[in-house]
């Protein structure tokens, strides 16, 4: 599959690149960012996937989070895809910020309008890793995932639905129980229809209750002053309770004074890179 390089910038000894390609899963042109640390010049490195939140593209994380120095030091290739298909000319895809363009929610849609293009779950778990493995110096056996908000939801469900595929998972302010929150109800009803059993297949709080897999240590950072936490969009307590019941280790850090923004992410990103490096470089 042909990749077209859009940009390349030297950063902390490595290269921050952006590529474009024709996606089979999404039936459109897609962009993704990839950071190649200095170590990638001489050997295969672990791959760490970042999933961004509502309204984001591949650019938000690479320009705002400040992750490059830690990724360079730990020798991690970091991949950041876009958050939805683009320009599919689907009726209603650009009508609201929390559904359609920029809001793929990391599900495979089943509703007629959306099912041809909105297959972000299969894109980030299958097509994109295959593309990365074939074109970049990564070790396919060492892969982890993390994300923010909608992307934190994405990271958690990717790890929980694929036991053993990812070495580690972490999230910033994830949407933990989308079946019960306004964002989730809107997205899931639009992409998946009215059958709520389909919704539960993409809800981390439900998935963790039936998680059959090997050990999975989860790290979550949540800003205490996050408006979306206060508005009942994120519901981390439900997820923590499910993890506790299932005896799945989760480190949940409620960070005093922090909100939902990339200033919050930038503050703690090095901790998350270290969390993943511990498993990826073991």
Examine the secondary-structure arrangement and name the CATH architecture: 3-Layer(aba) Sandwich
Q: How do the helices and strands follow one another from N- to C-terminus?
A: EEEEHHEHEHEHHHEHHEH
Strand % is 15-25%
Query: Helix segment count?
Result: 10
Biggest β-sheet, characterized?
9 strands, mixed
Number of DSSP strand runs: 9
What name goes with the CATH superfamily?
Answer: Alpha/Beta hydrolase fold, catalytic domain
Mean pLDDT: 97
Instruction: Quickly count the domains.
Output: 1
Give a short summary of the structure:
The chain has a 9-stranded mixed beta sheet, sandwiched between helices. With 282 residues, the chain is of the alpha/beta class.
Description:
The protein is an alpha/beta fold and 282 residues long. It has a single domain, classed as Rossmann fold. Helix content is 34%, strand content 23%. The two termini are 32 Å apart.
What topology emerges from the helices and strands here?
Blueprint: E1 4-11, E2 14-23, E3 28-36, E4 45-51, H1 59-64, H2 68-74, E5 77-81, H3 120-135, E6 138-148, H4 150-161, E7 169-172, H5 182-192, H6 196-200, H7 204-209, E8 218-223, H8 227-230, H9 236-246, E9 250-255, H10 262-280
Parallel strand pairs: 4-5, 4-6, 6-7, 7-8, 8-9
Antiparallel strand pairs: 1-2, 2-3, 3-5
């Amino acid at each position: 599959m042909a990749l077209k390089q859009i940009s390349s910038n030297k950063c902390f000894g490595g290269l921050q690149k952006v590529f474009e390609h024709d996606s089979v899963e999404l039936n459109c042109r897609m962009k993704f960012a990839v950071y190649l640390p200095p170590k990638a010049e001489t050997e295969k490195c672990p791959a760490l996937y970042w999933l961004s939140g509502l309204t984001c593209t591949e650019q938000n994380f690479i320009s705002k989070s400040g992750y490059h120095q830690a990724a360079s030091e730990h020798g991690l290739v970091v991949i950041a895809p876009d958050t939805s298909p683009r320009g599919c000319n689907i009726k209603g895809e650009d009508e609201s910020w929390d559904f359609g363009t920029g809001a793929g929610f990391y599900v495979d849609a089943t509703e007629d309008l959306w099912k041809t293009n909105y297959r972000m779950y299969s894109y980030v778990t299958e097509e994109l890793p295959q593309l990365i493995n074939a074109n970049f110096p990564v070790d396919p056996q060492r892969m982890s995932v993390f994300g923010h908000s909608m992307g934190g939801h994405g990271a958690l469900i990717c790890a929980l639905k694929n036991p053993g595929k990812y070495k580690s998972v972490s999230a910033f302010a994830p949407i933990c129980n989308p079946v019960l929150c306004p964002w989730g109800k809107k997205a899931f009803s639009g992409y998946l229809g009215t059958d709520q059993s389909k919704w539960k297949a993409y809800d981390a709080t439900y998935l963790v209750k039936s998680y059959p897999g090997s050990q999975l240590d989860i790290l979550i950072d949540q800003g205490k002053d996050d408006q979306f936490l206060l508005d009942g969009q994120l519901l981390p307590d439900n997820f923590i309770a499910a993890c506790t019941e299932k005896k799945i280790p989760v480190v949940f850090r409620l960070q005093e004074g922090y909100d939902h923004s990339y200033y919050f992410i930038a503050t703690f990103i090095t901790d998350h890179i270290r969390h993943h490096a511990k498993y990826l470089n073991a």
